[in-house]
């Protein structure tokens, strides 16, 4: 799924991976197979790199701009909410992960992205 996300997005970065992981966790929490009946609200805004969360969410959940079941709010937060069948779940990227991303050099982004792809959800984000 990460390789598919990299192809869709154009490169591999940590916010893409975080969006994928949030989406997968949401599918599990909401007992959803994705694509229809699920909606997502990404609060990152439209400025990279944080806005890359939205592409990860699209890849992992099937929420798309074309279907109108994803919206991106310009709040500058690494947060995403999901709703499906009357249930909802929201996630926020942990501050220590955000700090690690902030100090990364451009050359180490892909390695860090693969590293966090293997971490447990709790190490990356929390439910809010």
Draw up the topology in text.
Layout: H1 2-9, H2 14-30, E1 38-42, H3 52-61, E2 70-72, E3 79-84, E4 87-93, H4 95-102, H5 109-117, H6 121-124, E5 125-127
Parallel strand pairs: 1-2
Antiparallel strand pairs: 1-3, 3-4, 4-5
Helix pairs in contact: 1-3, 2-3, 2-5
Count of DSSP strands:
5
Order of helices and strands: HHEHEEEHHHE
* Arithmetic mean pLDDT: 97
The proportion of residues in beta strands is 15-25%
Biggest sheet descriptor: 5 strands, mixed
Please give the radius of gyration in angstroms. 13 Å
Global structural class = alpha+beta
Shape: globular
Helix content: 40-55%
Give the uncertain stretches in residue-range form.
none
Distance between the termini: 25 Å
**Cross-sheet strand order for the largest sheet:** 2-1-3-4-5
Describe the fold and architecture.
With 128 residues, the chain is an alpha+beta fold. The protein has six helices and five strands; from the N terminus they run H-H-E-H-E-E-E-H-H-H-E. It has helices at 2-9, 14-30, 52-61, 95-102, 109-117, 121-124, and strands spanning 38-42, 70-72, 79-84, 87-93, 125-127. Strands 2-1-3-4-5 form a five-stranded mixed beta sheet. Helix 3 (52-61) links the parallel strand 1 (38-42) and strand 2 (70-72). Helix 2 (14-30) runs parallel beside helix 3. The protein is globular, with a radius of gyration of 13 Å. The two termini are 25 Å apart. The model has no long low-confidence stretch (mean pLDDT 97).
